[in-house]
Amino acid sequence: MTTMKTTDNSGDVRLSGISKTYGSFTAVHPLDLTVPQGSFFALLGASGCGKTTTLRMIAGLEEPSSGTVRLGDQDVTALPPYKRPVNTVFQSYALFPHLDVFENVAFGLRRRGIKSVKKQVEDMLELVQLGEQARKKPHQLSGGQQQRVAVARALINHPQVLLLDEPLGALDLKLRRQMQLELKRIQTEVGITFVHVTHDQEEAMTMADTVAVMNAGRVEQLGAPTDLYENPQTTFVANFLGTSNLIEAEVGTRSGDDIVLEAGGGKLVLPAARCSAPTTAGGRLLVGVRPEKISLTHADDAGEIPEGRNRVTGRIADASFIGVSTQYVIDSPVCPELDVYVQNIERDSRLVPGAEVVLHWNPAHTFGLDAAQDIDAGLEEEAA
Ligand code: ATP
């Protein structure tokens, strides 16, 4: 099978100051973004955050209010969609119902007047593992198979960039998970730049090598999935990607590379390098820690907790056994609800609702966020 891996930059997507306003409403604030050739890039955000509008501006289906779109070295801002080296796969697939799988995939080639399509179509069907289904009509296929036809039909045009607009949205959960891995495999094989729009954080993290988290028309943070998860820079990202415990704290002293904070009468240590908030002594910030990073020890065994860990005391308010882990909600003086996920390896039968506990974690897993951020964002929203 021939692959389409290239080493040039023709599949770079460069957005410069691109924005979209509808009357007085700004759907996308001026945005600068570079998606390197060959990467799997995801625009992730809640409904209405502007991700589809951004994708449509790359496709040429929406005219930007400002800024430019470049593909490789070419400025395509003024080009209509069909003249851009881009193809889009939509959630609805938009397959031709009267044509079989082979002819659906061959469509783009035939339209360009190419006569001998057999080899290319067969290669493409092999890529998406539909060789056996070539003579079926779309209605005779499962949702996942239809989705793969839509991908094959787009890829056969050798676009420099493939845009995917919630392409897995119509599939049930199990099939979605399967197709995520399948799409990732296809992208690795063909080496084309994929720009994927989704509201599903797990989907974005599974497939993409770079994720841009969008909120209210702006990219809040951009990075590799692990980086976004481990080092969120805003409260929105901390809560949109998984779950975060956020504790209000006051900045105390500096100790080497760490900041010592005060929260609920106790002290917490935060590596200065993991703090995106101002750290003036006496200032307030939010201390974050992921639920799975926390260990739970019954208060009777508190003496066994090693030195140097961040500690918070509390009482178990709720415990849910969910198989691989038990999810606890802890009522604590520093925060009324802290989430803790404990893997079910050796379960402590004393850890039941009402039990007094100590939560403790490695300070290296702590991150610091600007406490004023949400208030500022709220005021901005109100003013708009
Ligand atoms: P979803 O996941 O629901 O598709 P999204 O993040 O893709 O959401 P967009 O479709 O990009 O969001 O829309 C961003 C904002 O722009 C929304 O508030 C939407 O209502 C608004 N919007 C989109 N198209 C238009 C339009 N043609 N006229 C006015 N407002 C629009």
TrEMBL record:
The keyword Membrane applies. Coiled coil: none annotated. It catalyses: ATP + H2O + polyamine-[polyamine-binding protein]Side 1 = ADP + phosphate + polyamineSide 2 + [polyamine-binding protein]Side 1. The keyword Oxidoreductase does not apply. InterPro entries: AAA+_ATPase, ABC_SmlMolc_Importer, ABC_transporter-like_ATP-bd, ABC_transporter-like_CS, Mo/tungstate-bd_C_term_dom, P-loop_NTPase, PotA-like, PotA_ATP-bd. PROSITE patterns: ABC_TRANSPORTER_1 (PS00211), ABC_TRANSPORTER_2 (PS50893). Its EC number is 7.6.2.11. The complex is composed of two ATP-binding proteins (PotA), two transmembrane proteins (PotB and PotC) and a solute-binding protein (PotD). Part of the ABC transporter complex PotABCD involved in spermidine/putrescine import. Responsible for energy coupling to the transport system. Belongs to the ABC transporter superfamily. Spermidine/putrescine importer (TC 3.A.1.11.1) family. NCBIfam families: potA. This is Spermidine/putrescine import ATP-binding protein PotA.
